[in-house]
From TrEMBL:
The lineage of its organism: Eukaryota, Viridiplantae, Chlorophyta, Chloropicophyceae, Chloropicales. Residues 57-69 have a biased composition (Basic residues). It comes from the Eukaryota. This is Uncharacterized protein. Residues 70-79 have a biased composition (Low complexity). It comes from Chloropicon primus. Residues 47-79 are annotated as: Disordered. Keywords: Membrane, Transmembrane, Transmembrane helix.
Amino acid sequence: MGARDAVSGQKAWRKGCVTRGSLGRPSRRSGCRCALVDHPTKVAIPCSSSSNQAHSTTRRRRRIHRRLSSPRTASTEVASSTTSVVSRFLGNQDKDLVKGYRIASNYWEGMKKGQPAGYKPVVSQVPNERAPAEASNGAGPDYDVVVCGGNLGIAIALALQNRGHRVLIVERRLLRGRTQEWNASRKECMNLVRAGLLTLEELEDVIISEFNPNRVTFKGGEDVWVSDILNVGVAPDDLVETLKQRFLRNGGKIRELCEFRSATIYDDMAVIKVKDKGAGRGSGAEEVLLDMYDVNKPNAVPTTTTATDASLEGATASDTITCSLVVDCMGHFSPIVKQLRKGAKPESIVLVVGGCVTQGVPKFTTSDILASFTDAERDMQFFWETFPAKEGTTMYMFTYCDADESRVSFEKFLESFLNYLPSYCRERLEAGQEIGIEMSEEDVRAIQADGDEFLDNLKFNRLLFGAFPSYKQCPLNSPFDRLVLVGDSSAVQSPLSFGGFGAMLRHVGRLDEAIHEAIEGSHLKASDLKLVQPYMPGLGTAWLFQKAMGFEPSQMGYDAGYCIPQRKEWTRAHVNRVLKANFAAMKTMEKTVLLSFLQDTILFWPLTRTMFAMTFVDPIAILRVVYLLGPRTLAQWFVHYIMLGLYTLCDFVFGRFRSQTSNFHVRRYMDAWRYGSGADFFEEH
């Protein structure tokens, strides 16, 4: 390609794509053909590989930009542009947000190098010995249960306290929810009422937004609108405070600003060492430094507290606590999880950026559950989620990948988010117009701002930089007695999701009952507690979907000149094509098929029918999935698929007899069949 063609192609690219200085609108259905990761630049660098002169201008633009979208190196001008866009944006945001960005960026780079964080043994077991007399003063354990990590742990703590157990929560920050909504369906939220955690009136009080319909869309495909999926916004601050006050009224104890240090397991109890981070500071205030635990943790990160907080009343200030059972609810970055996984690099990552936008974007009244409007780039397919919120609009861009060193940096990932955001907002407004939602004058002004003005207007009250890990070994079980992991610590959430709230809602009733029966029956050996978090083939089956929605490093075929060879051109549209076939197949079936999939519940018969139908909708796309995944991954997945069918059969045959037995082990197997097959999706509320 000649220099004149290169300049001409660059002008066309700038006209049709979003850059810092131009917010030209791409076609809603065709999407922007260029990768917007390492751009913009003032000189187009011709691609060294030969090009077909018969290719369209769009094809030439795409080849030019592939050179600019280097996954490993960038020109000085490109790097300067990236820094300029990100720096300009961060310069207008809150200081804590900037701290969170730097922490997350450093953590992500360390994870890619195989050094996510150091770990040290924090749990040990002394077999065939009772705890020293001085640990318990000869009076037995201080508590029946100690829950480490309270913002999601408060739910299981309150459920056990309601059953008459003595429960203590140890929380390294304040037990206080964030101000940005958690999204779920009303049906899922009813599990809080069924578990006795909230009344119907209290549930209505903590639901502060509700909206329908909800969209699923992929580039080049039709919009799919559904109702009652992730369509209510729950106020975490109100929810956590309501649960916290009930927990305290029922006799529960809370140690805030108290950090878990270690646990030693004996035959008769667990001895926990903690560090009270808020003690001995005179006024009671503490300067709290942010770390990765906070950045990826779905709650507010307060920086001060007072020693007069009511939740501290009655809680002992001892550095040693004894209990019958330790519940780890400290999330992905729990020190216990680090020990059990031996610091292993995650097999998969959900890379996320976004949050609640309070200024600079339209205030949407409907949601996007899963949306993409661009082709894949740099071995990543970008997806979007959007939810109406009380204070603005919650928007996330995310991708499924691994932690290979070639993966994009957080800086470039954030830049892609900022550059694609105006185009996404326009596409989103146009979709709303198609179903009769009119644009307000404020919405029009938001999308007409130029590049710098758009960045200057953009304000977040919270911005998440997430690298959420997932592992093939899930749920994670403890080899130690008297220790069970729940929530994100156990990796019981779907590998397709990046939040633990939905998994908590789904499993809180099961965990409450299982842990209660374990304590009552003294089933506290590691082999017993393994049944509290059993193997669930639905989670293993979801791995295939996550793998099919991303690429392995270099799988798109970037060469030394950072061009995609012609034989790999199809990979750019591959993920969108597969997902379009998937949803086209599901649309022909009953409503349950689509709704269960969108709620991360994998069911055997709907899955089987969908895969069969996809082979007729787009057989070429399915063959390419087989090619990209490879025989080993498919063989591993097929084992989970067969087990999913077996669990479905076992639940159908034996599940009806669950209420007729009180045997702890039998009931846990029946729970595994029910939840592992997804049959709990059909429970009436």
